[in-house]
Amino acid sequence: MTEPNRQGEVWVFAEQEDGALHDVTLELCGKARELADRLGVRAGAVLPGAGVGPLAKRLIAQGIDNVYLVDHPRLANYQTLPYANALVTLIERHRPQIVVVGATAIGRDMAPRVASTLRSGLTADCTDLDIADVTDPKAGVDHKNLLLQIRPAFGGNIIATIVNYDQWPQMATVREGVMPLKPASNGHAGKIIEEKIDIDDTQMALKLIQRHIEPRKVNLKGARVIVSGGGGIGSKDNFKLLYDLAGAIGGAVGASRAAVDSGLIDKEHQIGQTGTTVRPALYIAVGISGAVQHRAGMEESAKIIAINTDRDAPIFSVAHYGIVGDFKQVIPMMIKAIKEKTR
């Protein structure tokens, strides 16, 4: 699809698993609603699966006008070919101008195949989306109301803004947690449109023999308090201090990529551009330098306390309170003060 349809809708791929919508889908519904209102068009969602019709009402409550329901027994479990084919077919049928997909394991697998089939652009792992007029400096042509696809680039050293002039739909994947979850509105009116898609045997290249789902050991997104450690922690044993502090204040333990890459803590604790994006009431950054990759995942926290021996560490630029000192001395003092206050 190469000819822009400026009256096309703004779509969200509604990822679901075992009858539950993924959190990033609900977050993207709010952003789709915002973008659609600015463009003066409708917001839509493509909901593929088997027996997933009841989920359409939740999408509508999150601001979606049209839910395109693809209910097919062969879509009971995610497979790349049938899911990608369903989305490509509906895009060609209805011609949305924007399609956003969660940057989950499924989204990262499916979105590039859809974009390649449609010969459209795709920007991965966006941290923000916006609408603006853009001038092509080479051609000297003004383009109205393009999607600004914003993401860190060059190892997180710059923030790049990417636009797609003509190879539409404008497509982007967005990481979980970077868009705030808007409150649901049961008064929002929307339509459920049942779509028929042919899924033949050639698309079912794989046979699912067994599913194994590993439960999460830590829920960083749901934590109101996070104590996070960086490479400056130095060792696994030193991370025990962070667990002690988190236990004293009822929080979870997070980490920077440097700490994870050094083997100090498991990857499921990672916060940042390549980890989880969080917005806790309190974020305590210990031994974290504060590279932009990490700040992208925690700078929306309500209150940030940074502890670092380097008074020039970038983390202090986003911290509300900074402590310059050795965490091995500071954290025991904090734990003692907290315990004395709660007695």
Q: Mind sketching the topology for me?
A:
Layout (H helix, E strand, L loop, with lengths): L9 E4 L2 E2 L2 E2 L1 H17 L3 E7 L5 H7 L4 E6 L8 H15 L3 E5 L2 H14 L3 E5 L1 E9 L4 E13 L4 E5 L7 E5 L16 E4 L30 E5 L9 H11 L2 E4 L1 H5 L20 E5 L5 H4 L7 E6 L12 E4 L2 H16 L1
Parallel strand pairs: 1-4, 1-6, 4-5, 5-12, 6-11, 7-11, 13-14, 13-15, 15-16, 16-17
Antiparallel strand pairs: 2-3, 8-9, 9-10
**Mean pLDDT across all residues, rounded?**
92
User: Would you identify the CATH H-level superfamily of the largest domain?
Assistant: HUPs
Beta-strand residue percentage: 25-35%
Number of helices: 8
Looking at CATH, which topology of the largest domain would you report? Rossmann fold
Q: Please give the CATH architecture of the largest domain.
A: 3-Layer(aba) Sandwich
Distance between the termini: 66 Å
Helix share bin: 25-40%
Structural class: alpha/beta
Q: Which geometry do the CA atoms define?
A: globular
- Biggest beta-sheet profile: 7 strands, parallel
